[in-house]
Task: inverse folding
């Protein structure tokens, strides 16, 4: 284990040591409060302070930060993207895309996973599985295709270009010059997705959603990192992600924009995954299973396999846990252990 903690945060250091001792991969945990680094720890095979790791769906929270000031959530998607109005989607609101209620959890044709434009065009023509806004279900990959196209139409820029304007060590479309810093991800024995789900029919829908992504070597490829997949393709450090969320709490987003983005836009039991969920606009919010620790005003976004990135606004801090060892949600206690230790120090 390497790094340091401010006085009074030794329990976080001890908890991180316990987390690392139970892993064969590596991890990092960082906490920043109003610009002050309270915790910056890392360890494991091949890990340094500057190690980049694929953030998976932690990417969604990063993209939300550039997206929410640019789009009116109460506008119809067709006002930005006219061809989206086909297939019974004439009245779909931007908020229904950003809060995972639009009803497009997978792409019907078997298109190349890394082709943002082709998948967006297919979704524009596709009919939703349910009346948009009537159910909530996590759009694991299609969320990225949809918001990438919206951002392109509004700004003329790619999602990766907009993320670069934030100025953090977070990369959507990781350049070749940073490849040497990226640590490969791997699945722990018994790794599974959608661990709340037992229904075989909806399990087949989950398989269509992910298209084998987390069971393949695609996520460790340069092509995956370059593709600017706004749903899960960014790389970053824990230090950068914690700084991002700390800055969000201290003015990176205008107060009214942040308040709108982090109020509840959808919640309930995921109609596909059977998992309790609560969404703002592009951000996950504090939920009944404590994904973001004890802070009721928490927001952020988790990532497949254990990544946990977010903010506790009432404490004015941002945090991030990154790892390259993917563990199943029903057995992974790493993020919760660290957030509990952090809460005990505040």
Result:
């Amino acid at each position: 284990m390497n790094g340091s903690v401010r006085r009074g945060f030794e329990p976080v250091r001890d908890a991180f040591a316990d987390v690392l001792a139970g892993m064969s991969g590596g991890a990092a945990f960082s906490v920043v409060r109003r610009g002050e680094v309270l915790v910056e720890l890392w360890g494991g095979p091949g890990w340094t302070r500057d190690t980049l790791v694929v953030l998976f769906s932690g990417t969604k929270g990063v993209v939300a930060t550039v997206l929410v000031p640019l789009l009116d959530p109460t506008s119809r998607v067709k006002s930005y993207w006219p061809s989206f109005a086909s297939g019974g989607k004439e009245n779909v609101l931007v908020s229904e895309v950003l809060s995972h209620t639009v009803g497009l959890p997978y792409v019907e044709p078997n298109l190349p996973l890394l082709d943002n434009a082709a998948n967006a065009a297919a979704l524009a023509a596709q009919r939703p599985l349910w009346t948009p806004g009537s159910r909530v279900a996590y759009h694991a990959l299609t969320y990225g295709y949809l918001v990438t196209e919206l951002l392109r139409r509004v700004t003329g820029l790619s999602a990766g270009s907009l993320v670069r304007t934030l100025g953090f060590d977070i990369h959507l479309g990781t350049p070749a010059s940073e490849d040497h810093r990226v640590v490969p991800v791997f699945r722990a024995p018994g790794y599974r997705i959608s661990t709340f789900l037992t229904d075989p029919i909806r399990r087949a829908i989950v398989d269509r959603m992910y298209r084998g992504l987390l069971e393949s070597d695609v996520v460790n490829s340069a092509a995956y990192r370059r593709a600017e997949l706004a749903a899960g393709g960014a790389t970053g450090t824990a230090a950068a992600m914690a700084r991002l969320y700390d800055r969000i709490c201290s003015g990176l987003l205008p107060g009214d924009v942040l308040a709108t983005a982090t109020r509840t836009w959808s919640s309930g039991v995921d109609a596909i995954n059977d998992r309790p969920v609560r969404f703002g606009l592009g951000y996950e919010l504090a939920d009944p299973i404590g994904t973001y620790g004890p802070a009721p005003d928490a927001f952020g976004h988790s990532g497949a396999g254990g990544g946990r990135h977010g903010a506790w606004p009432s404490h004015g801090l941002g945090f991030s846990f990154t790892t390259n060892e993917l563990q199943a949600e029903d057995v992974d206690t790493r993020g919760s252990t660290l957030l509990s230790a952090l809460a005990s120090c505040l």
DSSP finds eleven helices and 14 strands in the chain.
